[in-house]
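Need Tc1-like transposase DDE domain-containing protein's 3D structure for a figure. Predict it.
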Amino acid sequence: MEWPSQSPDLNLIEHLWEELEICVSGIRARNAEQKFSQFQTAWAQIPQSVLTNLPRRCQAVIDSRGFAD
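Structure prediction for Tc1-like transposase DDE domain-containing protein:
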C-alpha cells in the first residue's frame, strides 16, 4: 500500500482529546454536569500553540508519506 488510508496522526480530534485527558486526569466528578464543567475548564486551558500546530502536524505526516521519520 503506497499511502495509509487512515493515518492516526491526521485525526486532529485525537490530539485534542489527548490534551483534555491530560488536564482532567485524576480529577473526580460527582456527576456528568461536574465532569462537563471540568472539560470546559480544561478546554480553556489548552495552549493556543496546540491548536495552531495542528496544520503543521498534518503537513509533517503528509511530507513523510504517513510514516514516522
